[in-house]
Structures are given as structure tokens and as C-alpha cells.
Specification:
Layout: E1 2-4, E2 21-25, E3 30-33, H1 35-41, H2 45-48, H3 53-58, H4 66-73, E4 77-82, E5 87-97, E6 103-109, H5 151-163, E7 170-173, H6 180-190, E8 198-202, H7 208-216, E9 217-218, E10 230-231, H8 233-236, E11 241-245, H9 252-264, E12 266-267, E13 276-277, E14 281-286, H10 290-295, H11 301-307, E15 310-313, H12 321-338, E16 343-345, H13 347-355, H14 361-375, E17 380-382, H15 391-401, H16 408-426, H17 431-438, H18 442-457
Parallel strand pairs: 7-14, 7-15, 8-11, 11-14
Antiparallel strand pairs: 1-5, 2-3, 2-6, 4-5, 5-6, 9-10, 12-13, 16-17
């Protein structure tokens, strides 16, 4: 139950408000949250994502943290949390432990559930870890279109790196076109199953009368026209990943059968009498509110809790302006290569694109950029130099800083400093290696970075 009695606002039906969400690491650092959680505390989401849950307690946002209690006890904790904004939220924190018993992640949500938690009722070792934890590698995922320039997407990358070596199930939710499959493919690529298949099924695209055959396969002679045995999509994902896109559209009768597959790790083909063992990791995705569907009887509650072990919410593109910049650059490079063009955006066109809401998210933006490249309209012009493909970003930066009357020296300091920071990032902060790459001395790196900081602090850029 979520209630807010102040300011004439009171909600007693959990369906009327979204759920709160925290995903933290083993020290309580917040990795993923959502806008509604930030609202209950009276701070912005960007500010919240920079904090530790202990900071929230010290700052008086609430009196005690059930996330920290879950970390300390290594057990599931449920309690009503009272926030400084007058919200009373019944929340549950579930720790996910590594093989050595240390806490890796904690998932805290406000969804109420009165049934059993079959995944978590054995012992405090919440999940079985079949693979050793990997060290987080610096990997932008750019080659699969995973652009992470905004803080929220960088946090998602961090979580994906942490959970990749687990076999725990993941539920990715967000509006259509936000890149749910891209995130799923990134987790697959970072996992120990990366050499195995990544099999996708769009639950909204399969007619109900053949859904079972596609999902589970069938034996020879199972029905008229079944002249040969056919493996189902689940079986084809063996030793890899099964991505269930738009899982909210799966018929209820098949949800029950999928539940048995998840519980028993085996599938029975249509017309078969024997079960076939399977070993695949399941990631589901949806653009709908599954919890509301559960409350309305449109989605199985037990299945919801099987697939919603690690929830990942992808914010809409309109809330990720930095990602729009990165995606424009990525898509422009992609279509320039595809169509053998050398086209760039003008500053005016770029600014116009930043102001759009993009209701179709990254998918709509991708189509828009392709259309610009193909038609050579909307202020697209030939690149002045082949070696520079991102003039639009430079033009945008210059135009926004012209009124500050900065000198050429100040502008050069900013550009040099930013370039040095990117090169340092390539070498994990190793200044010696970065200096070799840049062809300068290590001392020059620190001097130029200090110069950039000085220009920024004095407001000259």
C-alpha cells in the first residue's frame, strides 16, 4: 500500500501509482532507480543515482534503510518505509549473493506479493551462481548500438556488467523503441554464454494458434502436416539466451506452461511423451505495466515473480538528451557507411533534433537519421573534410558558447582537456599509456587537465 496524506493526495490502490525501485551494489550505492522513487523523496533522479542509501538516511529522507538491513543480514527484508515527503511505502529488499556469500546486488521494490517466493525460499544464498564473477570491462557496446552517454544509461551498463555472469532472470521494461533488445544482447555478449545462441521471440507477432508449436516445438505426426520433428524456440536457445520480447502478449495458458519450463528446466514438444532438458538463461522484455496486468488477472502473478528477479528500466529517450547526441552520431556513421555517403548535420538541424520528444524513442530517431542520409534533405550537407564526421557536435558547442566571448586559447584548452580525458578512459586511467598514445609527457597531461578545469571554473566556457 502506498499512501500520501499531505496536500489532499491519498492513494490506497497500488495500481494507481508506479512502484518504487532501488538496485544497489553490496555497499548500498544506488545503481538503478526510477522517477517515481525520486518523487517520493523530493529529489531528481540524476541526484538520486549519485547517492548511497546511507546518504539518504543521514540526510533525513527516511529514518532507516531496509536495503542496508538486507546487506547486513543477507536475507530478504520487508517493511513499510516512511519518507520525508509523507509517502508510506511497503517495500521488500532481496539480496543477491555471490558464491562466497558476499552481497553482489540488492533489489528493493514496493510491489506487494502475498504468495510464496519459490526462487528465494531455500536459504539466504538467493541465486545459484553457475559462473565465476567477471571483472567489469570498459565496454561501451557501441558495435551493437548500445549508446550510454547519460547517467541513467551508464548505470544500466554497470548493472549489466555485474549481472552478466549470473544465470538470474532479467526483466527489461520501457517504452517501445527504447532499446530493450540491445540491452539484452549486451548482457549476452558480456556473459559466459556469449558463444551460445541468442534466440529472440516476439510474443506479440506469433498467432495464438501456433504459439505453442513455435515455443515448444513438435514431434513428427503430432498433427496434420507435421511430417518431421521440429525443435521449438526454447530448445534452440539451449546453452545460450532466450529473449522473450513483449512477454505481456503471451496467452495465459502458455504462461502456465512456460512457468513449468522455468521451474523444471525441461520442455516437452507438442505430441511428445518425453521431456527434453534445457539450459538457457531467460531475459524478458515488455512495454506494459506487468504489475497492473497481474492485478487485473491478465498476467500470471507467479510467472511475474519468476522473470522479475533483476528489473531493468530503460528511460524514454526524451529524458536522455545526452544519449540523443550519442545515438545521432552512431546512426549517422552507420548510414554513411551503408549508403557510401559522407554527410553531416548542421548545428541548426542538430539543435532541432535535441528539442524533439521522440515518442518512438531510439527506433524513431534511427529511422529519422536514415531518411536524412538517404534524401540529403533537412540541412544535411557534404562534409568539408573526410576525416571529421562529427562537425554537428562541434558546431553545437561553439554556437552555445559564442556569447561568452572566450578566447581561442580557452577553447583549445577545453578541446585538449576533453580529448585527454577520453584517451585516459581508453587506458583505464593509466597516464603513462595515455601519454604514449598522445605523444606527450605525463606531466603535460595533468597540466592540460588543470588548465581545462580552470577555464570551466572561471566560466569562460
Amino acid at each position: 500500500m502506498i499512501e500520501k496524506a499531505k496536500n489532499n493526495f491519498k492513494v490506497q490502490d497500488i495500481n494507481e501509482l508506479p512502484s518504487t525501485l532501488f538496485v544497489t551494489d553490496g555497499k548500498g550505492n544506488i545503481l538503478i532507480s526510477n522517477e517515481f522513487t525520486a518523487l517520493t523523496l523530493g529529489i531528481s533522479l540524476d541526484e538520486l543515482l549519485k547517492m548511497n542509501v546511507q546518504d539518504l538516511v543521514k540526510a533525513g529522507y527516511y529514518k532507516r534503510s531496509i536495503t542496508m538491513e538486507a546487506i547486513e543480514t543477507k536475507q530478504r527484508v520487508s517493511r513499510t518505509v516512511d519518507t520525508n515527503r509523507g509517502f508510506h511505502i511497503k517495500s521488500t529488499s532481496i539480496p543477491i549473493l555471490q558464491k562466497d556469500g558476499e552481497v553482489q546486488l540488492v533489489v528493493t521494490t514496493s510491489n506487494e506479493y502475498n504468495g510464496k517466493f519459490p526462487i528465494f525460499n531455500v536459504d539466504p544464498t538467493i541465486l545459484t551462481i553457475n559462473n565465476k564473477s567477471k571483472e567489469d570491462k570498459i565496454d561501451t557496446g557501441a558495435e551493437i548500438g548500445f549508446v550510454a552517454e547519460s547517467l541513467s544509461m551508464k548505470q544500466i551498463v554497470k548493472v549489466c556488467n555485474q549481472i552478466a555472469s549470473y544465470d538470474s532472470k532479467v526483466l527489461i521494461y520501457g517504452e517501445s523503441g527504447t532499446g530493450k533488445e540491445v540491452v539484452a544482447r549486451y548482457i549476452h555478449r558480456k556473459s559466459d554464454r556469449s558463444q551460445g545462441p541468442f534466440v529472440t521471440i516476439n510474443c506479440a507477432a506469433i498467432p495464438p494458434h501456433i504459439f505453442e508449436q513455435e515455443l515448444f516445438g513438435y514431434e513428427k505426426g503430432a498433427f496434420a502436416g507435421a511430417d518431421t520433428m521440429k525443435k521449438g524456440i526454447i530448445e534452440l536457445a539451449n546453452d545460450g539466451f532466450l529473449f522473450l520480447d513483449e512477454i505481456a502478449e503471451m496467452p495465459l495458458d502458455l504462461q502456465a506452461k512456460l512457468l513449468r519450463v522455468i521451474d523444471n528446466n525441461e520442455v516437452r514438444r507438442v505430441g511428445g511423451v518425453q521431456n527434453v532438458s534445457i539450459n538457457c538463461r531467460i531475459i524478458a522484455a515488455t512495454n506494459r505495466d506487468l504489475w497492473k496486468m497481474v492485478k487485473k488477472g491478465m498476467f500470471r502473478e507467479d510467472l511475474y515473480y519468476r522473470i522479475n528477479v533483476i528489473p531493468i528500466h530503460i528511460p524514454p529517450l526524451r529524458n536522455r538528451k545526452l544519449d540523443i547526441v550519442g545515438l545521432i552520431s552512431y546512426f549517422l556513421a552507420e548510414f554513411n557507411e551503408k549508403y557510401h555517403e559522407q554527410l553531416v548535420l548542421s548545428a541548426d538541424e542538430f539543435q532541432k533534433m535535441l528539442k524533439l520528444d521522440w515518442p518512438g524513442n531510439a527506433r524513431e530517431l534511427r529511422n529519422y537519421v536514415e531518411r536524412l542520409v538517404v534524401t540529403e534533405q533537412q540541412n544535411i550537407k557534404q562534409a568539408a573534410e573526410e576525416s571529421v564526421t562529427d562537425w554537428f557536435a562541434i558546431d553545437h558547442f561553439i554556437k552555445n558558447n559564442l556569447d561568452k566571448q572566450s578566447t581561442l586559447k580557452d577553447f583549445t584548452s577545453i578541446v585538449e582537456g576533453r580529448y585527454i580525458k577520453h584517451v585516459l578512459g581508453m587506458f583505464n586511467g593509466n597516464a603513462t599509456e595515455a601519454a604514449k598514445k598522445l605523444g606527450i609527457d605525463r606531466s603535460v597531461i595533468y597540466r592540460k587537465l588543470k588548465k581545462m578545469e580552470s577555464v570551466l571554473e572561471e566560466g569562460r566556457m
